[in-house]
Design brief:
The protein is an alpha+beta fold. The chain has 6 helices and 12 strands.
Length: 254
């Protein structure tokens, strides 16, 4: 399993992915799940991947191979005129790879499923996010859905729902994502650091600030400890439950 998140802010895009993959508790390794494509001044595209590692690597490899030569049947990711067209092409490539593994044509075998986040900007369009499903269809981020998660999403979602603000700074967005990722790591051993991140300011039209946060990074450790302490403090300040009052308020059943 994995965990990846894409946030759409007023100022741009913020992306983060873990690097852990596992095929059992005795076969754990790290692979990059953030993949970039760019033509400086024209386009910057980043793809986050979750799911079967063989499937996601095959999709990224196909996209890279097809970008080396112009083909009428399989146009390059660098030739697409908009992010919508990029998302459609990525979805078709994902469906092609999955159907190639499945035993029954276009039916996606669950063992080979994968989900992708496609993020970026192609001039003159705005930066945006797309969530691409194993079937090849996709949805676009908007006002009502300003962020996407893929992989092991449930543990890190509550803090995003409660604290995300599209007007927040890039620094606050990274802090929010680290809390979300730390919550997921604490609950699921199949997700773990290092965490890769990218900050893409609007209209930059080249890869943004890219970095990696290691397990023993001092800031990440302070976030992990501080969030745990803050949750305990918040819990202690909540009103106490009084059992006697609850029992006295119960009605007798006939």
């Amino acid at each position: 399993m994995t965990y990846c998140v894409g946030l759409k802010l007023d100022k741009g895009l913020v992306l983060m992915s873990d690097t852990r993959t596992n095929a059992g508790i005795d076969n754990i390794s790290s692979f990059r799940k953030m993949h970039g494509f760019e033509v400086p001044g024209e386009r910057s595209i980043t793809i986050l991947s979750a799911g079967n590692l063989g499937t996601t690597q095959a999709v990224i490899s196909l996209l890279k191979e097809r970008s080396k030569a112009v083909e009428e049947r399989n146009p390059s990711i660098y030739e697409q005129p908009s992010m919508f067209q990029v998302a459609r092409m990525v979805g078709e490539t994902l469906r092609e790879v999955i159907s190639g593994h499945a035993e029954t044509g276009q039916q996606a075998d669950s063992a080979f499923q994968a989900t992708l986040i496609v993020a970026g900007q192609i001039a003159p369009g705005p930066p945006t996010l797309f969530l691409v499903y194993p079937e090849g269809n996709f949805i676009e981020a908007g006002v009502d859905t300003p962020f996407f998660q893929i992989g092991e999403t449930k543990y890190g979602r509550p803090i995003l729902v409660r604290a995300f603000d599209p007007a927040m700074s890039f620094e606050d967005a990274i802090k929010l994502l680290l809390v979300s990722f730390d919550s997921t790591v604490k609950a699921n051993l199949s997700v773990g650091p290092p965490f890769d991140f990218e900050i893409y300011p609007n209209d930059q039209l080249k890869r943004g600030t890219v970095g990696r946060i290691e397990p023993h990074d001092p800031y990440y450790q302070s976030i992990s400890r501080g969030w745990g302490a803050a949750l305990k403090q918040a819990f202690d300040h909540l009103p106490d439950f009084h059992l006697a009052e609850a029992q006295s308020g119960q009605k007798e059943t006939p």
